[in-house]
Design goal:
The chain is an alpha/beta fold. The chain has two domains: about 130 residues, Golgi alpha-mannosidase II (Immunoglobulin-like); about 375 residues, Glycosidases (TIM Barrel). The chain has ten helices and 25 strands. The structure holds alpha-L-arabinofuranose.
Length: about 525
Amino acid sequence: MSNHHCPFICLIVAGAFLFCSAAMAQSNDNSPVAVELLIRADQPGATIRPELYGQFAEHLGRCIYEGVWVGTDSTIPNTRGIRSDVVAALKKIHVPVVRWPGGCFADEYHWRDGIGPREKRPKRINTHWGMVIEDNSFGTHEFLDFCEQIGCEPYISANVGSGTPQEMMDWIEYMTSDSQSTLADERRANGREKPWKIKYLGVGNESWGCGGNMRPEFYSDEYRRFATFVKNYPGNRIEKIACGSNGEDFNWTDVVMDRVGARNMTGISLHYYTLPTGNWDHKGKATGFPQSEWDSTISRTLHLQALLDKHLAIMANRDPQHRVRLVVDEWGTWYDQEEGSHPGFLYQQNSIRDAVAAGINLNIINNHADGIMMANIAQMVNVLQAMILTEKEKMVLTPTYHVFDLYQVHQGAALLPSEVTAGKESVYVSASKDKEGAIHVSLVNARADRAAKVTAKLSGPVVKSVSGHIITAEKLDAHNTFDQPDAVKPMPFDGAEVKGDQLTATLPAKSVVVLELK
Ligand code: AHR
């Protein structure tokens, strides 16, 4: 395209965006928007793998240190150095998988730094995140202990950018071999007799950027080389995940799918963050933002739908048998860091806007359950769109945590097709049927200023009762603090009714509702 066309195209794109935002912000009419839905309860489809509700924990800011690890001498209650309040909160939402140690940190991480007596572990500089000292007190044993404490699968992100295949291969043997090899014995000497099971391994992170600035052709070759040395020791089977695209880099997905080949990987990743302004220099504030940034956050969150459709179509073209699945292993809101916090720590508050964005993203992800193998919100504690915020001994659960809590009913359930047939651009939905036959419908009213009156037609089994929970708030940036930890939390919802094959519900503005139909 010549530069000559750019202003015209830009005008169209900007116009469409303004139209969409204006439609959301429009009018003084505060009457509920009429929304019609169709839920095909008689057509259960793909299983919503529990892994779609995964988390990501990087050595970044206060995620690992303070957020998870307080050390064995801490006065904060802990089990072997891992804080008990955080473990209890994560167990409650049944976190299925945690990705670690990064992120950008992963491609500078050398696993040997994090084993053996803690006082002897080397001190390194975390060059990506604030140039702070990384004392390596949280390493392989601590991470895998943490996974066992919360009951999740580990997803290890291996160092391709500055590591070697040998280093990665040794790490895998150290963790997963039950043999009498020197590496397995070293693990035993460090306190772990039985090998761990490692199900997921990422071969590099953001190899197009912080992971080595590679081109997709070069990365594909690197992937093939590294993947050759990912060994399955008896009793363990690793699913290999290739580094995928940054948002709209469709060429990356196409080239990696083509050159790596479907036989050589189980998944390929995608990273997509929601910035209210779309500008990395001024992303927008986590609280105290104008309604225009509520609206733009919603529009930019919704973009995930188109991204998934396009990446999955490219993958299907290269892999018609659908052997490779998408792994959305970094998603979430990214705002300007909180004033006064360390610039490299990515600490941000979390409000009702994050709950709504999480609800939309999880609905979109559920609705692509046949093509997605895992998704991991960024990040678990004290970083970006966190579940949990901590300050010394205090802990607070965020609105995003509460969405994960309500949505856990979808984990392992069968996706039910659902669609909005009238009143689009207000309400976003996904639905599933669990093993006991209960139907769960998660509804998000993304409008900041108007309620939605939802009428849903249910095809299939007769439903007799409905109950549910709601997360909502008056203010655009309502959030929980250490002094007011329950300002935004789920409440019982009695605004829904079923009659025959019809479900009705009135959703307040800015709300996430999960209904159970029996
Ligand atoms: O989640 C923060 C950073 O975002 C990760 O380290 C990196 O992979 C991405 O760019």
